[in-house]
Amino acid sequence: MNHWLVKSEPDAFSWTQQVAAGVEPWTGVRNAMAAGFLRAMALGDRAFFYHSNIGREIVGVVEVARTAYPDPTDETGRWACVDMRALGPVPRPVTLAAIKADPRFAQLALVRMSRLSVMPVSAEHWAILAAMAGWEDPG
């Protein structure tokens, strides 16, 4: 299983909306690198759900419920999306400030490429962030 971090502006699509939807297409990604990461996702991969701009923190965990397919919000047919299923909120949101303050995250894409909306998270970084968040994977 691979691990990821997906970012959403909470005033556009929030964790609360993801939970209410259950399974929701992760649409609107218009960056080639981020879209490539969406295409690389496999069923059951886990991702941290990160509120960007407002909050700037990891607030939940989602899993890939459907692999990449054409993004229905894209008229050009160039971009892809995946379906994400809400697994649960993290007990303790992890802020960007806390991540940046920890030298173990110097190579984390969230720190190095802060504008990227979809990014991989190494197994080591996933374990550390999950512990910080109080997240125990349900399996």
Please explain how this structure is put together.
The chain is α+β, with helices and mostly antiparallel strands and 139 residues long. It has one domain (3-133): ph1033 like fold (Roll), CATH 3.10.590.10. The protein is built from five helices and six strands.
Name the beta content range.
Answer: 35-45%
State the share of residues found in helices, binned by percent.
25-40%
* Low-confidence residue ranges: none
> What is the overall silhouette?
globular
Strand neighbour order, sheet with most strands: 2-5-4-3-1-6
The average pLDDT is 96
- Within CATH, the superfamily carries the name ph1033 like domains
Keywords, separated by commas or semicolons:
globular, 27% helix, six-stranded mixed beta sheet, 6 strands, 139 residues, alpha+beta
State the gist of this model:
This protein has 139 residues and is α+β, with helices and mostly antiparallel strands. The protein has helices spanning 15-21, 32-40, 96-101, 109-112, 123-133; strands at 3-8, 23-26, 46-51, 57-70, 80-95, 118-121. A hairpin with a 5-residue loop joins β3 and β4.
List the helices and strands and how they pair.
Elements lengths: L2 E6 L6 H7 L1 E4 L5 H9 L5 E6 L5 E14 L9 E16 H6 L7 H4 L5 E4 L1 H11 L6
Parallel strand pairs: 1-3
Antiparallel strand pairs: 1-6, 2-5, 3-4, 4-5
